[in-house]
Design goal:
heterodimer; A: alpha/beta; Rossmann fold; 14 helices; B: mainly alpha
């Protein structure tokens, strides 16, 4: 029996060793990733200068046309992440500040995402390879329920989220396979969909009276002298009369309501996402309202 | 609690520790612990069905004794048929009632009567097909005086409810397992080490092969209407490896963990996809079920005695019943029927026992013939699997039809956000490993065992599918 227990101990140690080696290897590969997504790009970057940085969910990613800002002379990148919540928007801003980015303006899409302060698993996972290499990421995740497993068990995060950061992603990084996440300066244009879902019931949706990550973004901007612009972006005709945006305005008076700048369904790919055409109308209005009297440095 | 869950990773070492360090005094204490552990294991699914399991166990235990003690043939028959009918009754109610009710109503509707079936809102108790067959084989063997009745209820309960085989087999025989549980087990290092290797290899099959194949097979089968010929062919192949990895992986884990407790279970798989004909396939696939049907259905029906027509009739009966055993759906029946059809030419040419020897390949023409036979048998099996996997017979027929009518053999991007061909390399590697170890139970033990163990562990943690977790397919049967 003693021999068997030693054998089991050997297998256990072997498992730990294999996990540690794989963890090191995967993390090393993620540290080399440059062109796969916004998180990797920011993490592996050094100081950059931006006039405008756009943050938020897909409703930022698909709504702010970076090129239009550039045409006006503002160096811009859209860091909106499809499926992301404010948890990830706050973390990516913290990483930029950690890397000493010089940012003059942050535009934050803050509307539907104010209703929760949870992480979005699909997007938050992208930060996990770097958890041992950034105090910022470690601290940001430290309040999450499974932090101990993610941080202390070698390779656990790669196993748990294998579809996002598993060996297929590793293979793609190694083979330098590009994604379109960084194209168009981070903006992702949508087309009109014949079968796009034009219904979105937000009657019962309520913004949190205090959204931790929204406040984090706001205070990070204040601390680093970044002009903070929070906006609600348009939704389709179907949500007219559902007073979610009024509720947001009441709880967060500083957020600018652009719900009704574009309402016609023809400008929407789905109820919460405008087409490229709609995004251009919306971006033009943002430029007019916030960037007409700003001097280009 | 699944074999590949974290809860089981705590449960198994705990039972192992108690078994060898606390309850190791006598075989009674060992058996008592295993029974408690088995009942706890079973109640993790649904504690209410534990009563059904205990009742079924007690029924077979009691009727077994009554059959043996009865001096009157009438009473022997009475106790025998009581046990058989109650066992099959449970199976009938829980597993087949709704199917028969719906099919009957449908039949009446086709002939012009209006009928709405009365359906039962019951969940199928996990493992019912397996423990019912344990009990049945025991009672049948006593009735035909092949074995003596077991008078120790704990020993008998362990034979029926032993947790590694309780929910998905292998289907044990009283002649094999009962003698093992009747003696005190002593720890054997070599046996336990082999057990660990088999568990690890079973895990590789489940999480690396089966669960990964499942994501592709599901993406193809669930959207077969929009798939091209190449994807549909691959879908069949992926499902073939999914079900093989899933079920044989489970069996390997069951056999492996039994070795940890000093018990040897019946081997359930013997590299079935290397079979040279369909008869050989059925000697290598789900061996405990095939041999059960052979011994308790085919032979009592007359087996191969009584002329050609009798042989054909009996063959079709066991294949169709075997299909129906898997589930209450016409697709399983057709799957069984197709396998019977495959078997027919071998039966007619009296060549169903041709390939009894082991497979060896050399650089000669005969080896090309062997390889061709293996490939043909595999393809035939894949065609049959389409019926097993499809939701309806119509779906299966349309699936197969589209393979031949679509004619496109290009790469296709699937719903699981991967290309259809991406898994072929992994499957090829798996086949190669199995081929090189086809004379052994698993490939890890033996020379350079620790290196192979490290590779297996690496495969499990790096290449396993975890985010899209799949239950063991055979749990539903």
């Amino acid at each position: 029996m003693k021999k068997f227990l030693l054998y089991i101990l050997g297998i256990f140690l072997l498992t730990v060793l294999v996990s540690v080696i794989l963890d090191g290897l995967y993390t090393y590969i993620f540290m080399q990733s440059r062109n796969r997504g916004k998180v990797e790009t920011v993490f592996n970057s050094t100081a950059k200068k931006y006039d405008v940085v756009i943050l938020g969910s897909s409703r930022a990613n698909n709504h702010f046309v970076s090129q239009m800002f550039e045409e006006k002379g503002f160096k811009t990148f859209n860091y909106g992440m499809s499926g992301g919540h404010l948890f990830e928007a706050s973390l990516i801003l913290k990483l930029m500040i950690e890397r000493k980015y010089e940012i003059r303006n942050v535009i934050l899409e803050a509307d539907l995402n104010l209703s929760n302060d949870q992480e979005s698993e699909g997007v938050a996972t992208k930060f996990l390879p770097y958890i041992h290499w950034s105090e910022t990421i470690k601290n940001h995740f430290s309040t999450e329920e499974n932090f101990n497993e993610l941080y202390y068990i070698p390779f656990y995060r790669y196993v748990k989220f294998d579809s996002k950061i598993g060996f297929r992603e590793i293979y793609k990084i190694v083979s330098k396979e590009k994604t379109n996440a960084l194209d168009n300066l981070g903006y992702y244009p949508l087309e009109k969909h014949k079968n796009g879902n034009m219904k979105n019931n937000i009657v019962n949706l309520n913004p949190l009276p205090y959204n931790k990550y929204y406040e984090e973004i706001k205070s990070a901007c204040k601390k680093n002298n970044i002009n903070f612009i929070a906006v609600m972006t348009p939704m389709c005709e179907n949500v007219a009369g559902m007073n979610y945006f009024d509720k947001v305005k009441k709880a967060y008076p500083e957020i600018h309501n652009y719900e009704n700048v574009v309402t016609d369904n023809k400008y929407f790919s789905s109820c919460g996402h405008m087409t490229d055409e709609g995004a251009k109308i919306f971006t033009a209005r943002i430029l007019k309202d916030f960037f007409t009297n700003i001097n280009i440095p | 609690m699944f074999f590949n869950s974290l809860a089981f990773a705590v449960f198994l070492p705990l039972v192992f520790f108690l078994y060898w360090f606390v309850f190791n005094k006598t075989k009674n204490t060992q058996n008592a612990l295993l029974i408690i552990a088995s009942y706890y294991f079973y109640s993790c699914w649904d504690w209410r069905f534990l009563f059904l399991l205990v009742f079924s166990t007690f029924l077979d235990y009691y009727t077994g004794i009554r059959i043996e003690k009865s001096t009157n043939e009438k009473w022997r028959k009475f106790w025998f048929w009581l046990s058989v009918s109650v066992n099959l009754g449970f199976l009938g109610i829980f597993k087949y009632y709704n199917f028969f009710s719906e099919s009957f109503a449908q039949m009446l509707t086709t002939v012009g009567f209006k009928a709405s079936p009365i359906l039962l809102n019951v969940v199928l108790p996990v493992g019912i097909s397996f423990y019912t067959f344990h009990g049945l084989s025991y009672v049948i063997d006593i009735y035909f005086k092949r074995i003596k009745a077991e008078y120790n209820f704990v020993d008998y309960s362990l034979f029926v409810s032993y947790f590694p085989l309780l929910v998905a087999g292998p289907i044990e025989r009283a002649t094999h397992l009962l003698p093992e549980v009747k003696v005190k087990r002593t720890f054997n290092f070599q046996q336990a080490k082999e057990g660990i290797c088999q568990i690890v290899w079973g895990l590789v099959k489940k999480v690396v092969i089966a669960d990964t194949c499942a994501t592709y097979a599901n993406a193809i089968f669930d959207n077969y209407a929009s798939m091209n010929s190449f994807s549909l062919i691959l879908g069949g192949v992926y499902f073939a490896f999914q079900i093989y990895g899933d079920f044989s992986g489970y069996s390997d884990m069951a056999l492996g963990m039994s070795k940890l407790f000093g018990l040897e279970l019946l081997r359930n798989f013997n590299y079935p996809y290397f079979s040279r004909d369909i008869a050989e396939f059925w000697r290598r696939w789900h061996i405990s079920l095939s041999s059960w049907f052979r011994d308790y259905l085919y032979i009592p029906l007359g087996g191969s005695k009584g002329g050609l027509w009798m042989k054909i009739r009996n063959t079709f009966i066991i294949f169709i019943v075997s299909g129906f055993w898997h589930g209450a759906n016409w697709t399983y029946i057709v799957w069984g029927f197709i396998n019977a059809l495959y078997f027919l030419p071998l039966l007619l040419s009296n060549s169903n026992r041709n390939n009894m020897d082991s497979i060896t390949l050399k650089w000669n023409f005969d080896s090309v013939r062997v390889l061709f036979s293996i490939l043909t048998t595999f393809l035939l099996t894949c065609v049959a699997w389409v019926f097993f996997r499809a939701k309806t017979i119509t779906d299966a027929v349309l699936y197969l039809k589209k393979i031949f009518t679509n004619g496109e053999f290009s790469a296709q991007y699937l719903d699981n956000e991967r290309y259809n061909y991406e898994l072929l390399l992994m499957i090829g590697l798996f086949v190669l490993v199995e081929w090189n170890n086809k004379t052994r139970v698993e490939p890890i033990s033996g020379k350079r065992s620790m290196l192979k163990m490290a590779l297996a562990i690496m495969a499990i943690i790096a290449f396993g599918t975890y985010s899209d977790y799949k239950e063991f397919i055979y749990f539903q049967f």
